[in-house]
Amino acid sequence: MAAKLEYIWLDGYKPTQSLRSKTKIEKDFSGKLEDCPEWSFDGSSTEQAPGGSSDCILKPVFICKDPQRRNGYLVMCEVLTSDGNAHPTNGRAMIDDDDNDFWFGFEQEYFLWNPETNKPLGFPVNGYPAPQGQYYCSVGAKNAFGRNIVEEHLDVCLDAGLNVEGINAEVAAGQWEFQIFAKGAKEAGDQIWIARYLLERIGEKSGVSINWHCKPLGALDWNGSGMHANFSNSALRTAGKKEIYDTICEAFRPVVAEHIKVYGADNELRLTGKHETASIYDFSYGISDRGASIRIPLATVERGWYGYLEDRRPNSAADPYKVAARIVKTVKSAVVDEKVSAFVESELA
Questions:
Q1: What EC identifiers does the entry list (predicted)?
Q2: Cα 101 from Cα 98, distance rounded (Å)
């Protein structure tokens, strides 16, 4: 039977890239990534090439079943230039984690959006619903809006084999979250993008769009949306000392601008110091502090400083590839420090 391979990639639009996809039919397909051929597309239609030399290459990097299509597969692709090099828009190629030492768990928030009213689900045509507070992890028709979409999304993600670890209604009306974890920075990004793609496609059926913007309700007193990045590497997982965590967290301080640059457009609207955020102009870290730039989970401390960190600054529209690439680079800059290496070596001895 012929297989439907949905090749998915990121376009070149700025400041926020969008998902693109097209279907390739393959006869007698094995279902394996190595049997997915490279393919091309018109980069002049996606802001990735000029019209006079428009071919860009799709390099398959991740595959899973497509639960919504008969004999279908979802194929996440990197974009290459016509000469086979990584395209400038290819954030995945920036990740320096070939040994999968970095583990990432992304908490992806988003709004279910009514395109007719240009408001989230649960917002009346005129005015606003009750103030936020009653919607977080809520139940009931007055509190939770769009659960049918969210539940279908969870099912298809699990059927596809994505490592979703949970879902919940978020603080604002019509706002939801799913969490995905993977061992390997690249695969974590792959799975987030596939999950985003599936959610967008589910929304098509009911005429509901997915609003990934970090602050779609502007300056009103409603929470924005983030994509908190929980991360660890062998140094953090085997640290055993507070000093190692302090050193790694401090490595983020001098490169705040580099991180904010890839943490999603318009983040200054979200990172205000309110609504469980730190100010975009500050850098801080603290134990169990959701108002800090980086939260040190209480469980990490209780386990004797073995665990992970949470960077709370990436926003909901950020590219998980670029977020992971920047975090990996910063953490590696700290781990090679002699002071940290000495702590790690003593613990592993």
A1: 6.3.1.2
A2: 8
